[in-house]
Hints:
This protein is mainly α. The chain has three domains: about 5-170, MgtE N-terminal domain-like (MgtE N-terminal fold); about 180-280, CBS-domain (Roll); about 320-484, Orthogonal Bundle (Tetracycline Repressor, domain 2). About 70% of the residues lie in helices and about 5% in strands. It contains 23 helices and five strands. It is globular.
Amino acid sequence: MTESSEHHYTDHVQDHLKQVESLLAKHALVEEVARKEALPREDRHALIDKLVHKQHLTMLRSKLDDMHAADIAYILEALPIEQRLQVWDLVKSERDGEILIEVSDSVRESLIATMNREELSAAAGQLDADEIADLAPDLPQSVMRDVFKSLSIEERERLRSAMSYSDDSVGALMDFNMIHIREDVTLEVVSRYLRRFDELPDHTDQIFVVDRDDKLKGVLPLNRIVVNEPEAIVGTLMLTDIIQLHPDDKAETAATAFERYDLVSAPVVDEDGKLYGRVTVNVVLDYIRDESETDLLNQAGLLEEEDIFASVWKSAKNRWVWLALNLCTAFFASRVIGNFEGTIEKFVALATLMPIVAGIAGNSANQTTTIIIRSMALGQLTQTNASRLLFKEMAISGLNGLVWGGVAGLFAYYLYHNVTLGLVMMSAMLLNLMVGALVGLMIPMIMHKFGRDPAIGSSVLLTAITDSGGFFIFLGLATIFLVH
């Protein structure tokens, strides 16, 4: 998406949101006026029905009917709870399923809480097996039982299969809505077969070619059907050098393949080479977006995605764990400072310079961690090159320490006219930057080795180490060279 088209899309959905908010405001205003009228209760309800439901709410319902499910999901996420539920009630019931798939997990929870068993079962029944699997964790077991009963035997097996894979696997991204043909038929036969469909599955850029045992032989791009003679045989035109995914592969593997080879769709095969499903670019983009959002939240110490209009209590609990850890590390840093009270009493200037040493190292460490996490995500960091990368980051930190530590040392000398203090400042920054580089590299690598997300709380841990380490190094050097 180009920058201009991205702005156009943003303006488009923002216009929709403003129009919805305007209609909701008019609805609330007229309802408030009707309540203040000195009318009997029956007449007041009649007035509300006439002025509100037949005017603004009807306009709003009509507007929602014309909107894409993704735009409705965006609007629901941007509205406070009360207005969100008003809009949700106006959405046609046959669209509930597709909208629930589009909204964020936290907002979906608030919508599902207002729906009864029959409504949830009907909404899930509108979806394909892979989409139901995405929705399953948020649905009550009674609803899932109803859904299973309503599915055909083939769809039940697909749903069980989709639900059996972890969220970070290719199996969780896979769908079963695909077209496959034999290699010994002509393009004319293929064209007649395709015309039997009311519409092709979304993101169909190629048709999968299988043998009689459903083993994948190759793919036939749609453009080859158009530009070649109808008598041509599929086997002579199909591509055999193709990217194949497996259900147990990591979703990151699929994302990397789609990005590297500009794929629109890719086949998923089992251990015997049988065609099992496919992965499409829209699902991969959703996965990448969700992972990026999750990494951003984890780096900030948030446990999960947060509904911005959730209750104060729920939002506060979501932020407690890492705030508690941060408080503990802050107390630890304060004790480090406390051990050098005598030094600080003799050189009060140290108290004003300490934050500089800790802050610069923390920023440098976060830069290193960001580079490492990105390299891990792209599969560029291996055991073979890890040591080389460590030496490089240490060298970068050493160079930065000499340059910017020198600047900081000159600044300290300019303020306090003490050469030794300037040298201590430069040395402390050099050492703490190298400590920051070391921990910035090691923390994500260690967390990855133990199967944890390298982004989770990394910034909190880095800040704790560079703060405490910076204070200790700076005050320790000051004690050695300025006091004794």
